[in-house]
């Protein structure tokens, strides 16, 4: 069954694809700004602990369910359900997952378009085309829709080629490119005046602040969302994994790559912020809070690049190229969730399914752009703050409570004959039953209460 619907051809291909799904704008944009707003090193320590204690177990729930079923989320949750009621709830959860993934992609494509536009603006500056550069960096409907459509076109083109020729092939190219770009850019920022101040903030923890409930809840959310959990992206990627693979090991590698890139992004963004401060760019208000945390990338960093002359244009080009790659590796996994469902449940060809769904999502993005002030923040809140935690909660419930324990163990034995003797099996089943759902509910409660 797996072979007829596509399968990753290598462990490296899967790790690059799954890590690419997880490594998105949240890792390179969200994590560093949250760290800067929550004590730097204190946030980093708590995040590292929670990423392995929450994100990894929840990731494994999706991977194991997906590999067992070799099917989309709707069918997969039906397969592990013992009765008609749990089957209906599972199918509803799967449908909600691909709807939420599609809505996330609808606003993600807009933001990714901004990244691409800023990248090209740097080239326009180098070519002396200042009018074009201004259009590319100013907020306008024409700029926004053009680059949203370009980004969606790239995503559609990759997904149309299937698992190996599309997702795996391009993830295996883009992820190494992303990592190399991130390392080179970070190394350059380290050479600039002011960078050492940012490094001190990032690496010297205030242990009292590490116990702050606000910081812990923020780190919980960052750890959960950094792995792209809840909407079925990891479940669908797990469904393309060979039965011969050891899933706990694969999941650990994906988690490690994802966290490493988020941490490395902190080494880039926090020092860059303090370089900007050193160059006269204000980054904190009178209360000591970050100015425009949500738009840091489009305010503080461009202001920094402007102070650096020609070198700043090159750094800006490299940085926004990096962000564009991060966005693309995530978007292909989001689009694959509804595409896989449509292909398998309705018998539509891949190219037709990708074109129809991609066009519909681009249509939703257009509606958001036409009503930006009312819809953009609302869609983000509904999907990431409320829906994603609840869907993650349901996936943990199905892995921990609904799916029969013996069947789950048989799935793990496919890639590890002695799975029942492993430390993973001794800890994970109980952990995903109790600890993960409680932590995810805490994240959801924090979203409700603010």
TrEMBL record:
SUPFAM superfamilies per record: SNF-like
Assigned keywords, A-Z: Membrane, Transmembrane, Transmembrane helix, Transport
Record-level GO cellular component terms: membrane
Transmembrane segments: 12-29, 41-59, 95-124, 144-163, 175-195, 215-238, 250-277, 308-332, 353-380, 386-404, 430-449
Topological relation to the membrane, as annotated: Multi-pass membrane protein
CDD domains, per database record: SLC6sbd_Tyt1-Like (cd10336)
Compartments in which it is found: Membrane
Pfam families recorded: SNF (PF00209)
Keyword Acyltransferase among record annotations: no
Keyword Transcription in annotation: no
Protein name (Swiss-Prot/TrEMBL): Sodium-dependent transporter
Organism expressing this protein natively: Parahaliea maris
């Amino acid at each position: 069954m797996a072979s007829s619907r596509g399968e990753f051809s290598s462990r490296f291909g899967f790790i690059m694809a799954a890590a690419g799904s997880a490594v998105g704008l949240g890792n390179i944009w969200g994590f560093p700004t949250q760290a800067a707003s929550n004590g730097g090193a204190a946030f980093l320590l708590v995040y590292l602990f929670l990423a392995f204690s929450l994100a990894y177990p929840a990731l494994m729930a999706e991977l194991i369910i997906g590999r067992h079923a070799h099917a989309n989320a709707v069918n997969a949750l039906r397969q592990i359900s013992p009765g008609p009621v749990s089957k209906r709830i599972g199918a509803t959860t799967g449908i909600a997952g691909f709807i939420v993934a599609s809505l996330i992609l609808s606003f993600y494509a807009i933001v990714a378009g901004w990244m691409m536009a800023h990248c090209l603006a740097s080239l326009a500056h180098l070519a002396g085309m200042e009018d074009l550069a201004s259009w590319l960096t100013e907020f306008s409907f024409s700029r926004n829709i053009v680059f949203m459509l370009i980004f969606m076109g790239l995503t559609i083109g990759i997904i149309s080629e299937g698992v190996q020729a599309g997702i795996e092939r391009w993830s295996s190219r883009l992820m190494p490119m992303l990592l190399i770009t991130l390392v080179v850019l970070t190394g350059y920022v380290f050479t600039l005046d002011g960078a050492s101040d940012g490094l001190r903030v990032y690496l010297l923890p205030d242990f009292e602040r590490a116990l702050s409930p606000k910081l812990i809840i923020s780190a919980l959310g960052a750890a959960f969302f950094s792995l792209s959990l809840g909407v079925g992206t990891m479940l669908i990627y797990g469904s393309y994994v060979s039965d011969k693979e050891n899933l706990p090991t694969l999941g650990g590698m994906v988690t490690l790559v994802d966290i490493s890139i988020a941490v490395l992004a902190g080494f880039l963004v926090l020092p860059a912020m303090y370089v900007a401060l050193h160059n006269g760019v204000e980054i904190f208000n009178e209360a000591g809070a970050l100015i425009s945390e949500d738009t840091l990338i489009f305010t503080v960093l461009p202001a920094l690049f402007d102070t650096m002359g020609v070198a700043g244009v090159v750094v800006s080009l490299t940085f926004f190229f990096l962000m564009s790659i991060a966005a693309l590796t995530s978007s292909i996994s989001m689009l694959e969730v509804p595409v896989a469902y449509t292909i398998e449940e309705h018998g539509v060809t891949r190219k037709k399914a990708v074109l129809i769904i991609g066009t519909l999502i681009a249509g939703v993005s257009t509606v958001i752009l036409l009503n930006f002030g009312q819809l953009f923040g609302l869609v983000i809140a509904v999907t990431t703050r409320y829906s994603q935690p609840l869907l993650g909660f349901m996936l943990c419930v199905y892995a921990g409570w609904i799916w029969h324990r013996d069947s789950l163990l048989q799935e793990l034995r496919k890639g590890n004959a002695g799975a029942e003797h492993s430390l993973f099996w001794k800890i994970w089943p109980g952990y995903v039953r109790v600890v993960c759902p409680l932590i995810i509910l805490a994240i959801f409660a924090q979203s409700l209460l603010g």
